[in-house]
Write a structure and sequence with these properties.
heterodimer, A: mainly alpha, 13 helices, 2 strands, B: Rossmann fold, Rossmann fold, 3 domains, six-stranded mixed sheet, 33% helix, binds adenosine-5'-diphosphate, binds magnesium ion
């Protein structure tokens, strides 16, 4: 049986599954990193992903266009990011409470809209999911060719986004401003950066990425919408943000590791061990907890995370 | 006062209210090209507020501002920077995790489109550094720099924006003597380039040394304006405080009593694992103030922290009234009668988000008077805190106000009230008046002497020689972790102590 685990077909399958499982988490993690680097913890992530999953699915169901679905999902994510900004940035409410509130709200709203449009048929409707895009030549490489270079376009986009977000944060003017706003908003304000506007923009961008990650779940990973389709991936993205020490490359690496574990447990299930499959489901989450405990001690949190910024306030 | 030149800044009739305080009342202020103008006033006089208005950080309720002859309305620092106004705040506006270069260029990054042109940014920075002698590695991360170096980064940040009106809010508060000398050189160089500088301070000697003109603020109003050459420290003090200062506090002669603290061959490691305190021995007696003079960073902090119980020693022994003190346990230090005034009021001394009352009971909250069966007795706690607030004249809205709303002097009073409540045997006071204004300083000094007269032994760790000479009965000097000299107050001279502080040993 052990030899079954490590044959070539298994490996090919594992790499493919890894990328598929990691894609939504990479999107969400990058979105969360952008938000948190600007100083706002967005716990609305889980709800935002669900909203993206639902919106993407419904729009595709109605129009038949998956890309229109993804686009609308991103818009929904932007709106939820804006709501988060209103509560946590402009009103200065607790970021924990605002974020959890948004997750609860978006979860309810997603379900509501879905029911309104679809009702509750015994067999849930399905859409035509995205097709894998096979890259010529590269996909002929053995093992990795048929797994990596035969993925969904959104997966390629997610991979390309990793260095792009890194570039944005570390090499661009706006990136320097984002990092400063997250570390010392007073410093940013005194050199003429509009702190609250920038935080809002980051939340909107982050929201869009989270929602796109969500839409991958209903348009590629699966082809239908179920209420538990996100299944805690938003929280995993929060964990990966910390695990990656607020760095896009490290955070995405964390997401990939999670994808490997998730892909691995799927493969193990498929091999038919006589163990309840729930045990396998738990593995990636358990390892995440262990990794977090060891890594988070050394983490360097953006210094002004969780702190709303007001100008005419004492001690600000 | 005529200067024969047009002012670069003119503020007319500036009024600013915060909820219930009027921080600035109808203030007129002007600044001339190439001058260093000192804004002198006690804490809370309204200096920072006035300058924040000029910097566009606060908006004023009434009044007009002219910059270079043009009336302006400043709605954010961006507007002020565009007109050449830069401000270096009392609390640095740097990001410790970023490099010097990043900190300097933020908001004024060169480069087309999105990307930062680091090369030309660096060249410009290095050019400025050379010109003004402010040499700091552009790629060093700010957390690795000393306070003095950080301030240079702040100055470079302003110069990088080509500021010709530079506001410095209490720039010397955090600097060591040598750093102040350097800063003054830089300021003079800037002024000689026809840039104008506003130097905020409440330290009279400094103001006399650096400025061309002095504007005195009290309770939100301008009370006087003087040419520096035409006034003196005494007049300024009276103007600033609004009354005659005590020339010299009275100090009773008392013969010291039994030994209350003795330190034998104490060795302590710093955070970086180096020996910060090297085999130090001294003793402290009842009815005695032992002044430990020395430039900051010579091991005082580590020594105090061991006595506070928040750092472990690596060798030697400490005795309180002849019984050995276990180290690394703050509770033990408190129980054995050590009162602690830390050097850093905000980070170590107080919990700024908690209320005044909560800070007052921090060390005694679990005693039977305040706690029974795990529950607080709020009746007693309220009585206690009300009494302390009255007794120490702590200016706060009420006992429940968050501590961060208090001014520096009042923060120190909260610490004093807390620490002296238990009638301590030994008091370790670290830089107890650093950053405080004259009024608050007088108050703290009086309280320290009162404790001494009660019988408390006080170890006064300070780099302020005035303070050391004013209060001490005996002086020891610490240099590079060793006690380099000792003198009785009646024999000690400033020259000798100064020499010891700079490491010159007797033959
Ligand atoms: N942001 C603020 N909110 C409320 N009160 C303030 C604020 N800033 C300053 N004050 C009050 O205004 C007065 C003047 O303060 P400030 O300008 O900081 O004085 P200074 O710089 O001379 O020490 C003080 O009473 C202070 O408590
Ligand atoms: Mg001030």
């Amino acid at each position: 049986m052990i030899s079954d685990i490590f044959n070539l077909a298994f490996l090919t399958g594992l790499i493919g599954a890894t990328l598929r499982m990691a894609t939504p988490i990479i999107f969400a993690t990058l979105g969360e990193i952008i938000s948190e680097r600007s100083g706002v913890l967005n716990l609305g992530i889980e709800g935002t992903m669900l909203m993206g999953a639902m919106t993407g699915f419904l729009v595709t169901l109605i129009t038949g266009s998956q890309w229109l679905g993804v686009f609308t999902a991103a818009i929904a994510g932007i709106l939820l990011g804006l709501l988060m900004a209103f509560l946590a940035v402009y009103l200065g409410l607790s970021q924990h409470v605002s974020g959890l509130g948004i997750t609860l709200f978006a979860t309810g709203l997603s379900m509501f809209i879905y029911r309104l449009k679809v009702g509750s048929p015994t067999v849930p409707p399905t859409v035509d999911p995205f097709k894998k895009v096979v890259i010529p030549v590269l996909s002929d490489i053995p093992v990795i060719g048929s797994s990596i270079f035969s993925s969904y376009l959104l997966t390629y986009i997610a991979i390309i986004l990793i260095p792009l977000v890194s570039l944005l944060l570390y090499k661009t003017k706006v990136g320097l401003k984002i990092r400063t706003v997250g570390a010392n908003p007073f410093a940013a304000d005194t050199v003429g950066v509009n702190v609250n506007l920038l935080r809002t923009l980051c939340l909107m961008t982050g929201g869009a990425l989270m929602a796109i990650g969500g839409s991958f779940l209903t348009l590629a990973h699966q082809n239908m919408f179920l209420i538990d389709v996100v299944g805690g991936r938003g929280w995993i993205a929060i964990a990966m943000t910390i695990f990656g020490n607020w760095d896009p490359v490290k955070g995405a690496a964390g997401a990939l590791i999670f994808g490997v574990l998730d892909g691995f447990q799927l493969r193990l299930q498929a091999l038919g061990f006589r163990i309840p499959f729930h045990i396998f489901l738990m593995i990636p989450y358990l390892i995440t907890i262990v990794a977090l405990v060891s890594v988070s001690r050394k983490a360097t949190v953006p210094a002004s995370l969780l702190k709303p910024y007001r100008r005419e306030e004492k001690g600000s | 006062m005529t200067y024969g030149k047009e002012p670069v800044v003119e503020m007319q009739g500036i009024t600013k209210r915060f909820l219930d305080v009027v921080a600035n009342k109808n203030i007129d202020f002007s600044l001339f090209p190439g001058e260093i103008c000192a804004l002198l006033g006690e804490n809370g006089a309204g200096k920072t507020t006035l300058m924040n208005i000029l910097f566009g950080y606060y908006s004023c309720d009434e009044g007009k501002i002219f910059i270079k002859g043009e009336e302006v309305s400043l709605s954010s620092p961006r507007d002020a920077i565009k007109r050449g106004v830069g401000m270096i705040h009392q609390h640095f506006t740097l990001v410790p995790s970023q490099t010097v270069l990043e900190n300097v260029i933020i908001g004024a990054e060169p480069g087309r489109w999105l990307l930062i042109d680091k090369k030309s940014a660096r060249e410009k920075l290095i050019r400025l550094q050379k010109k003004f002698g402010l040499l700091i590695d552009p790629d060093a991360e700010v957390w690795t720099l000393s306070v003095g170096e950080r301030q240079k980064v702040e100055i470079l940040k302003a110069l990088y924006r080509n500021v010709d009106i530079l506001i410095m809010d209490e720039p010397t508060a955090v600097l060591a003597l040598a750093e102040i000398v350097e800063l003054f050189k830089t300021l003079k160089a800037l002024a000689s380039e026809n840039r104008s500088i506003i130097f905020i301070s409440h330290k009279l000697h400094e103001v006399m040394e650096i400025s061309d003109r002095i504007v005195v603020l009290r309770n939100g109003e301008v009370v006087a304006e003087r040419k520096t050459g035409e006034t003196n420290v005494k007049e300024l003090a009276n103007l600033m405080v609004g009354r005659e200062l005590l020339e010299r506090i009275e100090k009773k002669e008392i013969t010291p009593g039994e030994r209350v603290l003795s330190v034998d061959d104490l060795t302590v490691l710093s955070d970086r694992g180096l020996e910060a305190v090297k085999k130090v021995s001294f003793s402290l007696h009842k009815y005695e103030i032992l002044g430990m003079a020395g430039v900051s960073g010579n091991g005082q902090k580590e020594l105090a922290e061991v006595l506070f119980g928040i750092r472990e020693k690596s060798g030697g022994k400490i005795f309180i009234k002849g019984k050995e003190l276990k180290d690394g346990n703050p509770h033990e230090s408190i129980k054995r009668g050590i009162a602690r005034i830390p050097e850093d009021r905000i980070d170590t001394g107080l919990l700024m988000d908690l209320s005044v009352e909560e800070n007052l009971i921090l060390e005694v909250h679990s005693t039977p008077a305040f706690q029974q069966r795990g529950l607080f007795n709020f009746q007693n706690i309220h009585n206690f805190s009300e009494t302390k607030i009255r007794e120490y004249n702590i200016k706060t809205d009420n006992r429940d106000a968050p501590t961060k709303t208090l001014s520096g002097g009042n923060l120190q009073k909260v610490i004093l009230a807390r620490e002296l409540a238990g009638e301590p045997i030994v008091l370790i006071a670290c830089q107890p008046t650093r950053g405080l204004d004259v009024g608050a300083m007088e108050y703290i000094h009086a309280r320290l002497l009162e404790q001494r007269d009660r019988g408390c032994g006080i170890l006064l760790i300070s780099e302020d020689l005035d303070e050391i000479f004013l209060l001490s009965d005996r002086i020891i000097v610490i240099y590079e972790g060793r006690i380099i000299g000792e003198a009785d107050i009646h024999q000690a001279t400033r020259e000798q102590i100064g020499l010891w502080m700079s490491g010159v040993e007797e033959k």
